[in-house]
Design goal:
The chain is an all-beta fold. The chain has a single domain, classed as Jelly Rolls. It is built from one helix and nine strands. The chain has a five-stranded antiparallel β-sheet with strand order 1-2-9-4-7, with no helix packed on it. The mean pLDDT is 78.
Length: 146
């Protein structure tokens, strides 16, 4: 899927990805970097248990934690959230996540990608985790299922 800014009033920049294309960077240091996407899986592929994997390409100027959250029934009663966390060093990183990479949502396993109705990707710099805040402008390039 193509990564695009949701709100034109946010300050953002396009950063060149060394593998080609552009990565989106949110330039709002007081706000957490967060990308939200809906309808991310083609219904024809939703039941692919074995082969379908979520692939991410991300960049940060400093170490930190990327949190990838999949939601079923977002913002409704009965909402379920599965989470996967990736700790990274500074620089570009590729990640491929199977369904099993996501933690349980209220004790329920992610049985099909079709339940991924909303995707949230959030980055927290290590400095913020240690309570020492520094401006960090991470960037997200490709987000796709393959």
């Amino acid at each position: 899927m193509r990564t695009e800014p949701f709100d034109a009033e946010f300050s953002y920049a396009w950063i060149s990805d060394p593998q080609g294309g552009k990565a989106l960077s949110l330039l709002e240091p007081e706000l957490p970097f967060e990308l939200v996407t809906h309808k991310l899986v083609d219904p024809m592929m939703a039941d692919d248990i074995v082969h379908l994997r979520l692939q991410l390409r991300m960049f940060a100027e400093q170490p930190g934690v990327w949190r990838v959250m999949l939601m079923y029934r977002p913002d409704q009663a009965g909402q379920l959230v599965w989470t996967s966390e990736l700790s990274t060093t500074a620089g570009w990183h590729d990640a491929t996540l199977d369904r099993d990479a996501f933690g349980l949502a209220r004790g329920k396993r992610l049985t099909t990608w079709g339940k991924a109705q909303k995707l949230i990707i959030r980055f927290t710099p290590e400095a913020a985790l240690d309570r020492g805040e520094k401006a960090c402008y991470p960037a997200l390039s490709n987000v796709r299922f393959a």
